[in-house]
Amino acid sequence: MKKIIALGGSNSKHSINKTLATYVANKVENVEVNIVDLNDFELPLYGIDFETENGIPENAIRLNSLIESTDGLVISLAEHNGSYTVFFKNTLDWLSRIDIKVWKDKPILLLATSPGVRGGIIVLQSAKTYFPYLGGNVIADFSLANFYESFLDNEISNAELKKELNHKIQLFEQKLNDK
């Protein structure tokens, strides 16, 4: 059975992006889902002096191993001022010190959501451009605007959005099965 990771790009204890990533990952058929909370992999602020003096933190090594051991990733990114959260970017910085191909050429279903009308679209576009450089094989992407109105009772309430998302999940499933 294939294994996938569901990951929200935030350190919020009540992350709507972790909620969306978990929801979507659990819609993928015939996979084992590992829900990753980045709070379990807290890292010091990256700096070359810190790395030189202390080496790569154990949490970065553990997360890197987890990514290596999976077949695909469902990642939902929070957007802070048009970019990644500092917490997520710091995680990427540490992981890239182990291997610049952070995502190991694994298939990725890339998501973003926010309480606002843009649904994290700026960070989503940025990640679609940047992740391939980091070994990210972005199969499909999906943005969910107005999270608190669009995600009710643990379900996407808009039929058209749900249909669009199901299509993206199918593309991701096909790529997982091609491996």
TrEMBL record:
Listed PANTHER family: CHROMATE REDUCTASE, NAD(P)H-DEPENDENT FMN REDUCTASE LOT6
NADPH-dependent FMN reductase-like domain boundaries: 3-144
Superkingdom of the source species: Bacteria
GO MF annotation terms: FMN binding; oxidoreductase activity
InterPro entries with a match to the protein in the record: Flavoprotein-like_sf (IPR029039), FMN_Rdtase-like_dom (IPR005025), NAD(P)H-dep_reductase (IPR050712)
One GO term describing the cellular component: cytosol
Species name: Aquimarina intermedia
Name of the molecule in the record: NAD(P)H-dependent FMN reductase
